[in-house]
Amino acid sequence: MAGTSLVSASSEYSDTLLQVCSRLPPCQVTEEDLSQNPQFTKLLLEVSQHMDESGLSVSLRKELDEAEEKLRLQKKAWLRSEVVDRLIHEMLLEYRVKLREPGLTSEDQKFYESLEQCSLVSECSRMLDPTGPVTGEDRPPLLGLKTQDLKGYLPGKQDLLQMRDRLHREIEERLKRKCFSLLCFHQPEANGDSEVLKAAKASRLAATLEDEKRRLCSEKEKHTEMMGLLEKQRSTYPQVLLRCLDLLRTLAVQFRLQSQSETDRSSAQYLETKCTALFLKARMEELQVLTDTYTSEKVEVHGMIRDDLQRDIQVLEQDVQSCRQILNTYEILGPEFEELVKEYTRLKQELQYNKWALKELGKSSF
């Protein structure tokens, strides 16, 4: 039991150390390294209390978070003022375009002139700022002018108050139109909604865009990770394919080619046996046809016919032999006998002709 408790305690201790190492900057530390270096493990435990996972100290991280929060607030204030400034410049550009067109009322003209004067004075005041942007040291004023020298170019107090009241309404209206335009661009289905519903959706548009931005960043990280994995697979797959080809080549040489001769020999024996069986079957069919064609009676008759033909052949051979002897005897007599034979043949033909003539004459006399 004691050994089991010690093992479990050691395992929990190792898990704790691994969790601590995971909170530190990226480092490849295994459980074996921690068990083999107890002093290093102790050092990691102490360091993890003063550092975060990015490698910064706790105090420096706190200061960095505060600085980032201040920067965020300053960015927010700058963006707010930049938006208002751009809207004012946009209104002044529209005013300059409207000056070339009829229909501009005196009230509108007075408002835009007061706004343009205030914009110019504000811009000139920023240019006359005596504080240095980098060193913070005082500089001599530009052209010897100060901010108080420009206040005389501002419109009257009454005109300024009227311009300010209308400017608030104009900026609010323009911001609302731009927000609705951005909402309809992001959500085209909101074109047919009422202004109240559009305002409600526009109030949630920033959070929606922020969520989409985070999701897009997450997808980009996943895409980058997948591209890295794809590149690894592209470099790994050819090597795996080459190893597979080597294995297939080895298998083909060791097994396929060695057994091919045996397969061919077996195939040749099979074909030879099959051909012999086909020849025997053809011979058997031939014998069967002969057996069905020639019965015992037919064979007996054929034997009798053959015996008669043999006897006739023997008789003819004897006649041929006797004729040859007679011819040999006639050949001994010489050429004079040949002339007698020719004469005998001629006389025999004339005799046959005369017999035929007499026969014809006898037919005609009747």
From TrEMBL:
Biological process annotations from GO: centrosome cycle; spindle assembly
Signal peptide: none
Residue stretches in coiled coil: 199-226
GO molecular function: microtubule minus-end binding
A GO cellular component annotation in the UniProt record: HAUS complex
Keyword presence, Amino-acid biosynthesis: no
Entries under InterPro entries matching the protein: HAUS4, HAUS4_met
Domain of life from the UniProt record: Eukaryota
Keywords: Coiled coil
Tagged with keyword Coiled coil: yes
UniProt-listed PANTHER family: AUGMIN SUBUNIT 4 FAMILY MEMBER, HAUS AUGMIN-LIKE COMPLEX SUBUNIT 4
Protein name: HAUS augmin-like complex subunit 4
Organism: Microcaecilia unicolor
